[in-house]
Amino acid sequence: MEKTLHIVGGGMAGSEAAWQAAEAGVPVILHEMRPHVGTFAHHTGNYAEMVCSNSFRSDDDEQNAVGLLHWEMRAAGGLIMEMADRHALPAGGALAVDRDAFSASVTEKLRAHPLISFEDREISQLPTDGTWIFATGPLTSDALAQAILAETGTEALAFFDAIAPIVHFDTIDLSKAWFQSRYDKGDTEEQRKAYLNCPMDRDQYEAFIDAILAADKTEFREGETAGYFDGCLPIEVMAERGRETLRHGPMKPVGLTNPHNPEQKAYAVVQLRRDNALGTLFNIVGFQTKMKYGAQTEVFRMIPGLENASFARLGGIHRNTFLNSPTLLDDQMRLKSRPNLRFAGQITGVEGYVESAAMGLVAGRLAAAEIKGQTLPPPPRVTAMGALLAHISGDAEAKTFQPMNVNFGLFPPIEAKGGRRGRKDRYKAYTDRAKTEWQSWIAAQE
């Protein structure tokens, strides 16, 4: 086997993967098309360029899942976190960075590493030999996207997110919502109760439509525009087509009986569907949207049963090339049909700078171990990285798979000791458990 690891893409994931593999003693060639081939979002040829926010979000490693990811990356000697800490800016409990200094320092560190070499050209085909990691991100070039399409099929690669919001199940008011599939369809009790239903009377529905129409919306950026498919119209577009459109679409009330009030027929019903195998996350069916995040939270909490909802992800539709990873990748992040190829970062269906870098870290370590003839198991799924990897490699529902930030809803539930735990205690228990298992996983490689 060739002893060199090829990495395509010098963003967060590719940069971290290169660093991890090189630190493990494996020679790396990092292929990056910029600046010779640009994108509408990037402005430099530096590695790990931040194209949107300059924030890595919460740095709380005891109460926040993304803060736990920070902790795990630091414990693994992550380059991205080292440089983020070096160029941190005041941001309360968050980790924000001087983006130009950050990406310049990542570039400098990578170029100074004796085991990393560089090739500044576009890779437009999937190689048949060698060990490769593709970390080309949401702005994968058209030529490479076509090559991935040819290998995986048209249903396995999306060019736009059509994202419905996802709610933490334990924040839904079940005194108002109930489980039932429309017309009780299904052969098993689980199938007959596959949906969670939130009813609205006429006044609630009319107020909901008014709020959707009045809400602030984002616009497509240059290079992002695309026609909507009728199957994933934003709810505000449906509302603009007529006030009754939504209640004849994703909010239709037919075939449902509210056990809390069986005599009263709902005027409209919002349905949620389980989004992960654990049943800790539910997505709001058919609620893709271009409303701004603050407006989404306000509008969606008008839905009976969701007044106190906590959102694992808010909705959106935007340019973002990503794989249907649960159908394509194994737990080593390899393409099942071409196991010499791994994928990492946002193209695998994780969302955010930190999540992308984290999946690069795991891919780099897994690939390096393989090249060295070693067997490295994936990270324990009770860790933040293990939970993300499990989500993209099989836990997520393939039919509704969309990019996801790390959140505690992806973690296996933890047993409460001494009765029901409050959220603060529960999150601390999640992070304590994760840290112990992560340290063990790292120690086994040393």
UniProtKB/TrEMBL annotation:
Residues 5-374 form the MnmG N-terminal domain. GO terms for cellular component: cytosol. InterPro entries: FAD/NAD-bd_sf, MnmG-rel, MnmG_N, TrmFO. Transmembrane segments: none annotated. Its cofactor is FAD. It comes from the Bacteria. It catalyses: uridine(54) in tRNA + (6R)-5,10-methylene-5,6,7,8-tetrahydrofolate + NADH + H(+) = 5-methyluridine(54) in tRNA + (6S)-5,6,7,8-tetrahydrofolate + NAD(+); uridine(54) in tRNA + (6R)-5,10-methylene-5,6,7,8-tetrahydrofolate + NADPH + H(+) = 5-methyluridine(54) in tRNA + (6S)-5,6,7,8-tetrahydrofolate + NADP(+). One of its GO terms (molecular function) is flavin adenine dinucleotide binding. Keywords: Cytoplasm, FAD, Flavoprotein, Methyltransferase, NAD, NADP, Transferase, tRNA processing. Gene3D superfamilies: FAD/NAD(P)-binding domain. It is found in: Cytoplasm. GO terms for biological process: tRNA methylation; tRNA wobble uridine modification. FAD binds at residues 9-14. Its EC number is 2.1.1.74. Pfam families: GIDA. PANTHER family: GLUCOSE INHIBITED DIVISION PROTEIN A, METHYLENETETRAHYDROFOLATE--TRNA-(URACIL-5-)-METHYLTRANSFERASE TRMFO. Catalyzes the folate-dependent formation of 5-methyl-uridine at position 54 (M-5-U54) in all tRNAs. NCBIfam families: gid_trmFO (TIGR00137), PRK05335.1 (NF003739). This is Methylenetetrahydrofolate--tRNA-(uracil-5-)-methyltransferase TrmFO. It comes from Pararhodobacter oceanensis.
